[in-house]
Batch of 3 targets.
Target 1
Amino acid sequence: MVFKARREALILFMGDCLVLTASLWSALALRSLEIPSGELLLLHISPFSIIGLVWLFVFFIFDLYAKQTVIAKRRLPQLIIRAQALNLFLSIIFFYFIPYFIVTPKTILFLDISFVTILMYIWRRVIVEAVPRGRVESAVILSDKPEGEELTRELETNSKYGIRILPASILETGNAQKLSFVILDLSNTSYDDAFKNFYSLLVAGVRFVDISEFYEDIFDRVPLSYVDEQWFLKHISNRPKELYDVIKRLLDIAIAVPLAVATLILFPFISLFIFMFDGSPITILQERVGWRGHTFVMYKFRTMEQNDVALNAERSRNRVTRFGALLRKLRVDELLQLWSVLKGDLSLIGPRPELPSGVELYVREIPFYNARLLIKPGLSGWAQLYHDNHPHHAAAVDATREKLSYDLYYIKNRSIWLDIKIALKTIKTLFLTAGI
């Protein structure tokens, strides 16, 4: 599955390169109402090659090379439009504020970006769907848990995977030639009697895949129904990744120092406007739970009428202030947390820290919730970017349980590369002012 995902990403990337080339040629042809000459192409190919690389990078941070799940396909038009809005903004800066190239292609730029938008959608929704997938494989999913049903729906409704789901009864008929692999919980001892029959299928060429790993590969989160003590012993070690931890701390300091210093100039203005529109206090202090359950004080600019600490019905009556709504939209209410990063209480990337009352509730209601305390919390994390039903510190146990599946994915797979990916996508989120 990982190989297929990488192959799909490579195909999408190569197709996008062709789309960029075809769009520029089409823009030049439409602008001059004739086939572009070699001289005209040479004049534009250099600046548009540079800006094209920037556009491809923007496509990456907008998840346009991620696995094309059913959800991703539904979001495709929105993602392309948002990516192109940012690309247009960057292109205007490039052409009109960097006096290096002799062209300032007002009409051609807008024609080009219009062609790219249209052709990208056609390429990804029509042409890619028509590309042969190769041999369709057949699989059986042995699961009585919700994640098994979710996985079945995803594979049946998305032809990208090239997998046809067969009923489990086929295992009893002996028609192994119709089966490519079986997806099951390999740690489940209830299959002990069936493992002998599974061995005969293995000899016949049938592959056996652990459902937990397969689910994680598809959805980028951990299936909580399959998480137990054995899973933690296998996948998550309490020993720190020494080199990773050192590099991550150095990066935290290297990035947080200039950001904290650069934003200091904003603090007097933010404080003045908060006082003018919403009164005092200007800032709030919140106790949060950090690494290994240690509590620390986190500072924020006040955005609500009262200190935002309630996990009950009182929170619904604690409204966002007039100026606080703008601060939240622009994400500047979080700037004071950069000083928590410098102190070492927070990292730039990691699970968001919760209120002590929330942690107490979730540890009691959600199995293995305290596993997210194995690493230092962060300003932005995997769950904040990909969990659609984010509970925002309210007492939403079900939403928090789902959020934990993303946090465990990050804890298991954390690396510098994954941190960079999260950081880039956080920049995208900040640009869209969608919040985290």
Target 2
Amino acid sequence: MAAGHANAQCALPYTIQNGDAPDATKVMANYNALVACMASMAPAGQTFSVQTKAAAGGFGSVPPLSDGQLMIGSTNNAPEPQQLTAGSGINIATGPGQIAISAIPLAGSGGSGLYHQIMSSTPSAASTELSSWLNQGAAAVTDSAVGISITVPSSGTLNNIVARQRPSPTPPYKITALIGVTRSSTSYNGIGLGWFNGTNRLHLLALTTQNGGLPKFEVTKWGDVTTFNGADFQTANNGYSQPFWVQLADDGTAVSFGISQDGANFLKVFSTAKSAGWLGAAGYSNIVFFINPQGGLTTGTLMSWKVE
């Protein structure tokens, strides 16, 4: 027999030196010990098994791994072949010799859909910082799976701006929002974004129905929450589809209002120097998400919200 390096690990029960009298019992005992030792050092398990050290000191084995399996530790036991388990929002794909782990887009967070490059994570009162009311009355706000929603009872035929507000970011900034509205209006029902000077005046961009008819976009001026002071801009009643995108921008010197149906291409429908604007140089100090609930109970939802 030819002994390799590993055979040095085999302990023999008898030492036989040159010149000793032949003893078949000792020779056979050494032979059997060597055979047993060599057998214990042979690979364990079937072809492509993963070798481990058994508790008795020889080789143990983990069965051949299938596509995507890994050896997972088990305290005081041999490792086990297991598949990775995907947690919430995680997708795991496997193949021969490979594992691919990817995130599953959450609702409202984009992903691979049409709007994935422009949708934000799901807006909430906390994430948008729209944390306080302007003229709340009987209105209510909720955070839901699709965004932050305001529900406002009908004001009949009277103007009555109800809004959630927050301080404006430090200029320059741009706010892009996706808004959906559920309403059954018989009057001039409006919803959108705008600015509030913190005291009385508002400068707003709204999607507004006209006597319950097809909606239009308009930039409007308000002396207070019930006093309409005219429009800087309005489209025709083009029946814009929902949800719709609006954009407010302040470069430090001028403010502007924009509209879009795809979230990427905006029409700047009105802009003005802040010093000449309805709210004055220092008046564009608060952002509002508002509803004017003329003609019907109205729920409006911010479905995407980005401040850049």
Target 3
Amino acid sequence: MKKITGFVITDILKNKIILVYTIVLAVFSWSVFSLEDNTAKGVLSLLNVVLLTVPLVSIIFSNIYMYNSAEFVELLVSQPIQRKTIWVSLFTGLVIAMNMAYLIGVGIPVLIFVPDMTGMIIILTGMMITTIFISIAVLCSILSRDKARGIGIAIMTWLFLTLIYDGLLLFLMFQFSDYPIEKPMAIFSALNPIDLARIMVLLQVDVSALMGYTGAIFKHIFGTSFGLSVSFGLMLLWIMIPFLISLQKFKNKDL
């Protein structure tokens, strides 16, 4: 398992796309904190980019990598190696390599400019978002043999979780604005990993105070230590469920 994981990590880190991805994140992170006198504004600017760029790159790159590794996977399956070991090794290699890129590009500037709980939350949520979308990408790659269809499913999943889901929530809020729907909206927001990550960071920056009663609801539900633990627990479920489904399908798949 260690040899397969090590090979995947080395192979990914040699990829020019990952190098460019790391450099772009680093340039933006350093620029945001260098140009902003207020670290809170820098955190918000960085958060918007992280929650848009990191999921997109993670899901598309991981999905394409899995399809391009099909022959390598078939070679491994022909060896006396358990399928579970192969799949876990591929997933682990992707997670480590992509999170290394994130830590270099975003983690180092954040630790320098925001060396507190807020900075740690940004780093942890970014790593978990990366891992979540790798898990979804791995599932998409096993659901369809056709590369174009698999990539299309991955992009549509990213689009739904990043843009469409929030649009649906806003539509519901406007439609039922005469009713007390703040608590249901908070619960629905928690079901989306991107919204969950955004809420966790905003509560640390204390921007929720500008959101009125809705912000108070978010702070009451997610602002405590228990709420933070539940939030990370939900994000772990987003990692585990797609990966376990893909693992089960890979075990039973006829290659």
